[in-house]
């Protein structure tokens, strides 16, 4: 239903649509006192050559015009701000192309020098001694007055009629203005004290123009001008508005007296030759000056080229979007890319993500500072850049932003230096520092064990043995046996600790020879059980070998014995009397996973997390008061990792503990 209503509404709108759409209306601006191109006539209506041309185009193109002529400076301001759509009576210039799009030419005019008659005028150099009237925002300022050095002693006029009035009143001396317009103003106002001298200068192309980017309107105007030129209408309009020079302005005396005219002609010819000769001298001087400056510029460019091409550092230039616009040959020597492979590419294409993030954050801060009127100082960054072979190098880049005339950033230039070796040295230094800290921790641990854990058992052995020697007659045989068992157990524990210390010291100094071989796991376990049987018997702890028959491992036998000895000793130490210790092994792919478990006191999560750290003190007394250093587990971890395996522990308080490690099944 809704679709039907929609279709019916479209049909009704189509049926009642006007036969002709409203014509597009455009606002036209221009100078109100710029005859014969644009001006307000005596009746108050816009008139002039370009007004008539524009009206003819409107008739051809079915557009409407709202003509609002004003002062020239206001007309320029209105087209820039968008208040008007078209501006007439405007001369083409490269500077104006930044905000305007020009039509095809309508008329070509030359500028002339309008000067007071009573002033001496030998050549163009005479103008430096006189006061100039400059037309505000006129192209003559940038195209002639500034380059010739005449834009110094001057006053500004808002329009050509105002400028000529100032000269006629003697308040200034001369103006550079369009020939046709100047003559028209002199004739209209009957000025008697102004004349043209010197050559014609600044050829000027009169056009219409629209705001930058309004291609639709520009096409309408250009198509209209083309049609008017084709059908002859443009020539008719130009002929209608053409202004001829009057006899009373320039040639009245020639008509009156042919002899005087001839004399004046000869004098003028001589003056022209002199003027041309002086002009040539000036041109020659300026040419020589320009030649010298050009030579200096070439020398400067050559010095820059030699410096950049032979510099070991990379000199580069980016546009405001971080695209490379220049890079020196050092980049090819360092990263391997040819210049044509990187020019036009984004800097971000050769950086790692962290480098891109760093530059983006720095650019945000730079833009924030710029919004407050603060220009950032040169910045130094350390970045990783991609090489052609796929590798990465570290560079230290010093970057400086440079700015447009309006204060916005137009690009960046800087220098990059390869610091890969320095970064490697810094990394090596950090690794050595870490190794040194570990060695210091090892040293402290060794001193702690030597000072406490070795001294205590020896003191017990010496004390008990001296007691037996001094009072052996007073002891019953069962007491003697008790003390002797303690001495024996303590001696074995001490010997095991000493073996661990020696093995650890060898591993840290690189003197511990690693000689793996295929061996029976069962045989190694049996040897360890036999070695620790007496210590286990004291606490009535059972040693059980589970599922290890016919399992072979590829390991250093001495290191494997040390691992098992420490794990079983720890299990005995933390087992209750009549406890049980089991060793089991299973094959997992190319590894053997060995588990040493007990049903003893277990460990807390905090103890488990610090179990294999050398700088932590987690040693605790056993269930029978046995002492330990906590050093054996560090040695186990060292030896397991030497085989390429891993070791870990699982435990809960009061529920025993299981140490699990892996060894390779075969070579």
SSE map:
Elements lengths: L1 H14 L9 E7 L1 E2 L3 E3 L5 E2 L1 H13 L2 E7 L1 H10 L4 E6 L8 E3 L4 E10 L15 E4 L3 H7 L8 E4 L2 H9 L5 E5 H11 L4 E18 L3 H17 L1 H9 L5 H4 L1 H5 L1 H53 L3 E6 L4 E4 L2 H6 L3 H4 L10 H19 L7 E8 L5 E12 L5 E10 L1 H34 L1 H16 L6 H33 L7 E4 H18 L3 E5 L5 E4 L1 H17 L6 E9 L2 E8 L6 H5 L21 H12 L4 E5 L5 E8 L3
Parallel strand pairs: 1-5, 1-6, 9-10, 19-21
Antiparallel strand pairs: 2-3, 3-4, 6-12, 7-12, 8-11, 8-12, 13-14, 13-17, 15-16, 16-17, 18-20, 21-22, 22-24, 23-24
Number of helices: 21
Strand content: 15-25%
Oligomeric assembly: single chain
Structural class: alpha+beta
Shape: rod-shaped
Biggest sheet, in brief? 7 strands, mixed
Rg measurement, Å: 51 Å
Q: Low-confidence parts lasting 5 or more residues at pLDDT below 50?
A: 1-21, 243-257
Q: pLDDT average, as an integer? A: 81
Please explain how this structure is put together:
The chain has 667 residues and is α+β, with helices and mostly antiparallel strands. 47% of the residues lie in helices and 23% in strands. Strands 1, 5, 6, 7, 8, 11 and 12 form a seven-stranded mixed sheet that branches. Helix 17 packs across helix 21. The radius of gyration is 51 Å and the shape is rod-shaped. Residues 1-21 and 243-257 have low confidence and may be disordered.
Give a summary of the structure in a few sentences.
The protein is of the alpha+beta class and 667 residues long.
């Amino acid at each position: 239903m809704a679709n039907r209503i929609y279709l019916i509404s479209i049909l009704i709108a189509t049926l009642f649509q006007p036969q002709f759409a409203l014509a597009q209306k455009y606002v036209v601006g221009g100078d109100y006192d710029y005859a014969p191109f644009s001006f307000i006539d005596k009746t108050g209506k816009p008139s002039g050559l370009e007004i008539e041309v524009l009206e003819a185009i409107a008739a051809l193109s079915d557009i409407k015009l709202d003509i609002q002529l004003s002062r020239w400076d206001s007309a320029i301001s209105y087209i820039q701000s968008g208040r008007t759509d078209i501006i007439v009576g405007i001369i083409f210039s490269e500077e104006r192309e930044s905000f305007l799009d020009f039509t095809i030419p309508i008329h070509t005019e030359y500028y002339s020098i309008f000067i007071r008659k009573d002033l001496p005028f030998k050549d163009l150099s005479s103008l430096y001694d006189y006061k100039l009237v400059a037309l505000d925002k006129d192209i003559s300022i940038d195209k002639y007055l500034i380059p010739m050095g005449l834009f110094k002693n001057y006053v500004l006029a808002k329009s050509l009629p105002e400028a000529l009035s100032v000269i006629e009143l003697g308040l200034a001396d001369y103006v550079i203005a369009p020939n046709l317009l100047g003559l028209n103003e002199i004739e209209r106002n009957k000025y008697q004290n102004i004349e043209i001298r010197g050559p014609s200068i600044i050829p000027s192309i009169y056009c219409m123009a629209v705001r930058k980017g309004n291609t639709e309107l520009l096409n309408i105007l250009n198509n209209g001008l083309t049609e008017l030129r084709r059908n002859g209408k443009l020539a008719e309009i130009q002929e209608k508005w053409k202004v001829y020079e009057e006899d009373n302005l320039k040639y009245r005396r020639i008509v009156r007296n042919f002899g005087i005219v001839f004399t004046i002609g000869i004098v003028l010819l001589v003056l022209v030759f002199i003027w041309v000769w002086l002009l040539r001298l000036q041109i020659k001087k300026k040419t020589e000056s320009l030649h010298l400056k050009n030579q200096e510029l070439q020398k400067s460019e050559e010095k820059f080229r030699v410096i950049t091409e032979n510099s070991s550092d990379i000199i580069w230039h980016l546009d405001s979007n971080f695209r490379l616009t220049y890079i020196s040959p050092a980049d090819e020597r360092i990263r391997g890319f040819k210049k044509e492979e990187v020019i036009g590419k984004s800097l971000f294409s050769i950086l790692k993500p962290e480098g891109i993030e760093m530059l983006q954050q720095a650019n945000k801060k730079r833009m924030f500072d710029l919004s407050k009127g603060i220009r950032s100082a040169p910045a130094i960054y350390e970045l990783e850049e991609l090489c052609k072979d796929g590798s990465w190098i570290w560079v230290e880049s010093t970057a400086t932003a440079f700015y447009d005339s309006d204060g916005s950033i137009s690009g960046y230039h800087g220098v990059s230096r390869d610091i890969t070796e320095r970064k490697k040295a810094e990394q090596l230094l950090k690794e050595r520092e870490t190794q040194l800290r570990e060695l210091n921790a090892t040293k402290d641990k060794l001193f702690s064990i030597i000072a406490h854990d070795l001294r205590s058992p020896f003191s017990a052995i010496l004390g008990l043995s001296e007691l037996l020697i001094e009072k052996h007659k007073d002891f019953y045989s069962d007491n003697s046996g008790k003390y002797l068992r303690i001495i024996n157990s303590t001696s074995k524990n001490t010997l095991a600790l000493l073996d661990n210390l020696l093995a650890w010291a060898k591993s840290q100094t690189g003197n511990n020879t690693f000689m793996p071989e295929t061996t029976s796991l069962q045989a190694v376990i049996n040897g360890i059980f036999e070695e620790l049987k007496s210590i286990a018997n004291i606490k009535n702890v059972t040693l059980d070998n589970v599922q290890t028959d016919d399992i072979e491992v590829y390991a250093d036998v001495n290191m494997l014995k040390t691992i098992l000895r420490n794990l079983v000793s720890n299990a005995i130490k933390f087992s209750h009397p009549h406890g049980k210790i089991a060793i089991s092994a299973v094959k997992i792919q190319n590894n053997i996973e060995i588990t040493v478990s007990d049903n003893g006191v277990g460990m807390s999560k905090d103890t488990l997390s610090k179990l294999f750290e050398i700088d932590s003190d987690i040693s605790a007394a056993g269930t029978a008061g046995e002492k330990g250093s906590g050093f054996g587990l560090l040695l186990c971890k060292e030896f397991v990792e030497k085989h390429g395996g891993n070791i870990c522990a699982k435990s809960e308080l009061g529920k025993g503990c299981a140490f699990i490690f892996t060894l390779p099944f075969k070579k």
